[in-house]
Write a structure and sequence with these properties.
YaeB-like fold
Length: 87
């Protein structure tokens, strides 16, 4: 199982979210930690942000990078669909 590391921005989004959404995001992070590459909500990104993956949660996207050597997943950002790709 992979270890999850949140960026400051991702942690801030989770903390500002409603309690119910926080729980849902945490469950998604647990799913990613178990299988970061496969799933119907997981997609490898292309273009300028290639090498990153996204997890789709309704209108929210979790953008992350996987380090297979150290079994670490770095969550770069969590946010609304239209906003996370603009950074």
């Amino acid at each position: 199982m992979y270890r999850i590391i949140l960026s400051h921005e991702a942690a801030k989004f989770i903390n500002k979210s409603p309690q119910k959404l926080q729980g849902t995001i945490k469950k998604c992070l647990e799913t990613i930690a178990q299988s970061p590459f496969q799933g119907i909500y997981i997609k490898k990104l292309k273009g300028e942000i290639s090498g990153l993956y996204r997890y789709k949660l309704n209108d929210i996207r979790i953008i992350y990078k996987v380090n297979n050597k150290d079994l670490i997943i770095f969550v770069a950002t969590i946010g609304n669909r239209g906003d996370v790709y603009k950074k």
